[in-house]
Amino acid sequence: MGTFLFDKIVFGPIKSRRLGNSLGINLLSTEHKVCNFDCIYCECGLSSKTIPVKEKFCRIELLFSELEKVLSSQREVEIDAITYAGNGEPTLHPAFLSIAKKVENLRDRYSPNSKIALLTNGTTINKPSVQQAFEHIDDILIKLDAGNDELIAEINKPLSHFGIDKLIAGLKQLKTRVKIQSMFLEGSADGKDISNTTKQNVDSWLNWVSQINPEEVYIYSIDRDTPISTLQPVGPDKLEQIAQKVRKLGIKTIVT
Hints:
The chain has a single domain, classed as TIM Barrel. Strands 1, 2, 3, 4, 5, 6, 7, 8, 9 and 10 form a ten-stranded mixed β-sheet that branches. It contains seven helices and ten strands. Helix 1 (60-73) runs parallel beside helix 2 (96-110) and helix 2 packs parallel to helix 3. The model has no long low-confidence stretch (mean pLDDT 90). It has helices at 60-73, 96-110, 128-134, 149-155, 164-172, 199-212, 236-247, and strands spanning 10-16, 20-26, 81-85, 115-120, 139-143, 179-189, 192-195, 216-221, 231-233, 252-255. It is an alpha/beta fold. Helices cover 30% and strands 23% of the residues. A hairpin with a 2-residue loop joins strand 6 and strand 7 (192-195).
């Protein structure tokens, strides 16, 4: 199945299932996926592990000029969110903190009613500079697709050590609550059956969601091309059943 990369640093606005009319910011390469996860469902395809450092990240001067140009020219267009997204994990950019401060400044100047959002896998959450950057972001949406490290290894394929306990420890250091976004899927990958919708897997995921106690949970499934053709989307009825279990914890949950 076909996948795609964002070919611009600033793109959209596009209609987002979770964020409304969203103006995207891609801090990463426009030619390569740059991520420390290699999720089997990623719309950007699978990761290349041989990208020269100078090609991994956008130039911040170009980012700021492009963002200011777009924001100043779209004052008649309602922008619900300015979203760090794009071709991989945004917080890997070495200047993420200074970028977050400047983007907040530009938002305040040109589009004060827009929220600033971040889509992240949470792997850098223990870095002090990333935690400081979070203070300049309104909505932090962290990926949590499974409730145990073994299933995370199968679905998200971390390229370095990652454990849910480490994520939880980082979340406890934050000064703000986060939102959780979770992809549910079925099918097979690498010749092995895979599903995070079984009772056992959903229960283990619920346990961690309860400990995180997020502001909101977004539950969704595949609706775009994936790099592995044997994956299957989960139907809306099953997604709603999972959502009801989260709501019983007193947590607002949206199926998107």
